[in-house]
Design a protein that fits this description.
The chain is mainly β. Helices cover about 10% and strands about 30% of the residues. The protein has a single domain, classed as Sandwich (Immunoglobulin-like). The longest helix has 16 residues. The protein starts with a helix and ends with a strand.
Length: about 170
Amino acid sequence: MRVAIAVAALACASLLAGPAHAQPKATADIKDASGKSLGEAVLAQRDGTVEIDVTLTGLPKGTHAFHIHEVGRCDPPFESAGGHFNPEHKQHGKDNSAGPHAGDLPNIEVSDTGRVKLQVAVKGVSIDGGPGALLDGDGSALVVHEGADDYKTDPAGNAGKRLACGVIHR
């Protein structure tokens, strides 16, 4: 009987502690310049990448650039988020032979309803430390831009002004 109770206690402790290999996670509440929440991004460290899962509503229809920026501040008009997250000091864009920045993400396509969902795995960044740490001393942010990223023009892909921003945090 004592063995059964001990095994049951270990099983309960294991369930309460969560998975043995839980991966670091972070979130970002993405807001427009008026402070209205447009949605949330969930970031998870997995297999040497950070997976970003974002769902947004209330954006203008069309193609918009979406980037990780180098500072965890989102004071409108969101210039406080700094430039693109770029720990390896590369140029902007996947189509630039000297790029891309670690913060360069795919464009998002917003439907007539103003909704968009994106899932992307990002290399060169980390939630849990190291040279690509998103949660370093000044943090980082996710930013949605007015226009599309051309994937080549340094430093920001001619994406236009910043429409929305969310500070990445645990």
